Amino acid sequence: MALVLATTTPGEAELFASLQGEGASLGRPSVFVRLSRCNLACRWCDTAYTWRFSGDNRPHRDDIAFERTANQITADEGDIATRILAFGVPRLVVTGGEPLLQAPALARMIAAVRAGNEAMHIEIETNGSVAPTPALDALIDQYNVSPKLAHSGNPADLALIPERLAAWAADPRAYFKFVIATPDDLTQVRELVATYGIVPERLFVMPEGTDSATLRERSRWLAQAAIDAGWRVTDRLHIHLYGDTRGT
């Protein structure tokens, strides 16, 4: 049994300890495991090496195609669980790509982590378009749900699935994180909040950007918009600390 992971360098799985850089757990020491493959294709995706392999012509602002063999690795679920536990960090964040595409294998890996540390807090980062399997769902403490708005370039019928958004909005473990590039994006967030009854306490808006200057500039006007709407703002701490790099 195996998981398909992204890599930091060819042959080395992207598995590392750092601080959670975004959302409700911002600043908390965490172990990260980044899975490969995604069902969506955001124009501004900062982890395009998890899905935009040679031959994939879905649009991306950098227009770079990555070689699959150098950027993707298959690893045994038990081995990955052992490596996670070896960090001795009390929080696991599973990111991607879209982790829920590998729900059965992921559930087995997380069950092995739980067997080694029952108190491990486990988060999954998801684009919100894929449902977790019951076996996986029973193991998760927190979902960081980032539905993709129109400016991502994804068709709404793929990215914004009504039954999934309604389910996430009703799940107290789910925190929404909307990526914002321009003030116009806030209109769509307001529409989604009204349609699905998303609770402001579980809603974050986050500036899109992969450098500190862009994040700070967008945060200036985003902060006032969040105050007016009663939403929460999240930064991208890892960008300020380490830049736009893998394994951070």
From TrEMBL:
Molecular function via GO: 4 iron, 4 sulfur cluster binding; carbon-nitrogen lyase activity; magnesium ion binding; S-adenosyl-L-methionine binding
Pfam families from the UniProt entry: Radical_SAM
Swiss-Prot/TrEMBL catalytic activity: 6-carboxy-5,6,7,8-tetrahydropterin + H(+) = 7-carboxy-7-carbaguanine + NH4(+)
Enzyme class: lyase
Self-association and partners: Homodimer.
Physiological role: Catalyzes the complex heterocyclic radical-mediated conversion of 6-carboxy-5,6,7,8-tetrahydropterin (CPH4) to 7-carboxy-7-deazaguanine (CDG), a step common to the biosynthetic pathways of all 7-deazapurine-containing compounds.
SUPFAM superfamilies listed in its UniProt record: Radical SAM enzymes (SSF102114)
Cofactor details (free text): Binds 1 [4Fe-4S] cluster. The cluster is coordinated with 3 cysteines and an exchangeable S-adenosyl-L-methionine. Binds 1 S-adenosyl-L-methionine per subunit.
Annotated pathway: Purine metabolism; 7-cyano-7-deazaguanine biosynthesis
Names of the cofactor(s): Mg(2+); [4Fe-4S] cluster; S-adenosyl-L-methionine
Residues of the Radical SAM core domain: 25-244
Family recorded in the similarity comment: Belongs to the radical SAM superfamily. 7-carboxy-7-deazaguanine synthase family.
Record-listed Mg(2+) binding positions: T47
GO biological process entries: tRNA queuosine(34) biosynthetic process
Binding-site list for [4Fe-4S] cluster: C38, C42, C45
Protein known as: 7-carboxy-7-deazaguanine synthase
Entry coiled-coil feature ranges: none
Keyword Magnesium: yes
Keywords: 4Fe-4S, Iron, Iron-sulfur, Lyase, Magnesium, Metal-binding, Queuosine biosynthesis, S-adenosyl-L-methionine
Record-linked HAMAP family: QueE
Residues annotated to bind S-adenosyl-L-methionine: W44, C45, D46, G97, S146, P147, K148
Binding site for substrate: L19, Q20, G21, R34, T95
Entry EC no(s): 4.3.99.3
